[in-house]
Specification:
The complex is a heterodimer of chains A (about 120) and B (about 110). Chain A has about 120 residues and is mainly beta. Helix content of chain A is about 0%, strand content about 50%. In chain A, β4 and β5 (about 45-50) form a beta hairpin. Chain A is globular, with a radius of gyration of 14 Å. Chain A starts with a strand and ends with a strand. The relative contact order of chain A is 0.31. Chain B has about 110 residues and is an all-beta fold. Helix content of chain B is about 0%, strand content about 50%. Chain B has strands at about 5, 10-15, 20-25, 35-40, 45-50, 55, 65-70, 70-75, 85-90, 100, 105-109. At the A-B interface, β5 and β10 of A face β4, β5, β9 and β10 of B.
Chain lengths: ~120, ~110
């Protein structure tokens, strides 16, 4: 059974940092891209970042480029999202999602974690 | 960047009725690389449909996707109580950044 378990969320002041983790199980981690998608309170879904199966390629939304860093550790079957220079509008539930391509340039997301809440407030 | 517009914003229907949700792209979608997701309150999204019309594993056949080019539709043939939720379309026919529509809420009338 595919499982994605996020952790690391919490409350932080503007300008602060957090590292989110997503532990994967139930599939061959090294053959899938991984992504982060967030959802601000009462709002829709926003794709944030993705990393290829090998880790060679990383992608970011313009809204987080230069502030967030995605990485993965195959030995731990974990993907990370380092959040820096946090702003109030980064407040959201952050979901980890497995990416599938099936020949496409981009990814769709076939499995999701339950999410971890990040609150940025003074 | 391609923009996805979902309509209506809210759909008020009764159990047993047919739901038709629209997702329109501002430019033609390559190879129909469009996905649909369902999200219930307090839960993570769930993949329903990919490549515009292929149901994901375990998705009931009352859910169907159709369309091509710029106009796509998610149809729920007969609404069950558990189908009342928010539905999002997502484009993956371009390299990241990836785009979601703003969602359609299907609520009980």
């Amino acid at each position: 059974e595919v499982q994605l378990l996020e952790s690391g969320g919490g409350s932080v002041q503007p300008g602060g940092s957090l590292r989110l983790s997503c532990a994967a199980s139930g599939f061959t981690f090294t053959t899938f891209a991984m992504n982060w998608v967030r959802q601000a309170p009462g709002k829709g879904l926003e794709w944030v970042s993705g990393i290829s199966s090998t880790g060679d390629n990383t992608y970011y939304a313009d809204s987080v480029k230069g502030r967030f860093t995605i990485s993965r550790d195959s030995s731990r079957k974990t993907v990370y999202l380092q959040l820096s220079s946090l702003r109030a509008d980064d407040t959201a539930v952050y979901y980890c999602a497995r990416g599938r391509r099936l020949g496409a340039p981009g990814y769709f997301f076939d499995y999701w974690g339950q999410g971890t809440l990040v609150t940025v407030s003074s | 960047e391609i923009v996805l517009t979902q309509s209506p914003g809210t759909l008020s229907l009764s159990p047993g009725e047919r739901a038709t949700l629209s997702c329109r792209a501002s430019q033609s979608v390559s190879s129909n690389y469009l996905a649909w997701y369902q999200q219930k309150p307090g839960q993570a999204p769930r993949l329903l449909i990919y490549v515009a019309s292929t149901r994901a594993t375990g998705i009931p056949d009352r859910f169907s996707g159709s369309g091509s080019g710029t106009d796509f539709t998610l149809t729920i043939s007969r609404l069950e109580p558990e189908d009342f939720a928010v539905y999002y379309c997502q484009l993956y026919g371009t390299s990241p950044p990836l785009t979601f529509g703003r969602g359609t809420k299907v609520e009980i009338k």
